[in-house]
Each structure stands twice: as C-alpha cells, then as structure tokens.
Amino acid sequence: MTENRALTPGDAFATLLAGNERFITGRPQHPNQNAVRRAEIAPLQSPFAVLFGCSDSRLAAEIIFDRGLGDLFVVRTAGHVMGPEVLGSIEYGVSVLGCPLVVVLGHDSCGAVAATCAALEEGLTPTGYVRDVVERVTPSVLAARAAGRTQPDEIVDEHIRNTVDLLVDRSRVLADSLAAGRVAVVGLSYRLAEGTARLVADHGLGVPVRTPGVEEEPARPA
After folding, report:
1. pTM, 2 dp
2. Which of 66, 130, 141, 177 could be stapled to 183 by a disulfide with Cβ–Cβ 3.0 to 4.6 Å?
3. Which segments of the chain are extended strands (E)?
4. Are the CB atoms for 30 and 156 separated by under 8 Å?
5. If 0-12 CB within 10 Å is exposed, 13-18 middle and 19+ buried, where does residue 12 land?
C-alpha cells in the first residue's frame, strides 16, 4: 500500500475533514469497508493518520471521519492521557507506518475532564487507577483556570492543546519529523451533538485555529 504514504500532512488533514463533512451532512461513503479492501490490506497497512483520542464510546474515529479499514492508526485512552505505551504507539505510526498526520481528538462533555474539575473543586478524587487519569488531566485544568478559562468547553480545549504540546515536547521522533516537514500534529475538539471537529491546536500545518466563538463550525483545510 503506497497511496497514503504519498500524502502530505495537509493532504491527510483535508482527507480527514472531508470525511467529517460527509458524516455531519449525513452523506457518508463508508470507504474501504468491503471484502476487497480487507484482502488488499491483509499483508500490509498504510494508514494516513495517527488518531489519539479519548476512549469515550461516542468518539468512534472511523465513523466520525467516514473512513475504513487501514485508514487510521487509532490510539485511545480515557481523557486522551499519555503514558509510555501511548507515546510508543504514536511513534510507531509515524516512524514505521509513515503517517504524515497525528491528531489529538478531544470532545465536549468529557468525563475525565469533569472528574478532574470535581476533584479540584470538591475533593472528590476517584479511587483505583481512575485517580491516575484525573492526576494526568489536572495540569490542563489548572492551566485553563490560570488563563481565566473556566467554561467546560474552554477547559477541554486547553486539555487538547496541552496534550498536543506534550506529544511534541516528549517525543523526539515527532519533533524531528515536524522539523523535517514530514508530519503535522494537530488537536481537534469534537462536539457530540453536532458531529463537528474544530481545530484548536496546530504544529506543522499553518491552518488558522478556530476561536471559541465559532466552535459549532467544523475545521476546514486551508
């Protein structure tokens, strides 16, 4: 499979958003979801994007972006929090599979963000390993509040931006690929009711980031 490897980061971003537009308007094409595709990619995968998203059941990447088998290399954790396994998986998608785009996908009504806010405001810290998720989201919530961003959607956007920045900061593979122009790392904020994905963070694309006043609009390629 070579078609996805030929895509630039901008091409990959435009392809992703075109699928989201089809999903929003109720005209999905369900590409690459048949027996021919299944057989074609069995020997080798060549996804065009790494998608690191929240594990929320309403955030199924292939549906939201109207894609199919072999298109997206998906990594998901609650609240899109990172650990070594996540970083290694994303680096694999970039360095081994050749994905030209890495997307961090967050969403409104995020349970991990809500739990973190509750822990900070009311001392309701979860038990077990859920507590670890809350602890990893906490820096984003504190950063949002320090900047005067207190609305739920503003906090979610801050967490997405923080995750994107952490990826680039912690991964030499991503930083080097960014510097060489081989990959872009972006953050999208998804609205559950509308189905729209809004750009809130961009490393390597140069696409205008949407402002809070137009969060209902989907992101658009330049």
Report:
1. 0.91
2. 177
3. 49-54, 72-77, 101-107, 184-190, 197-203
4. no
5. buried
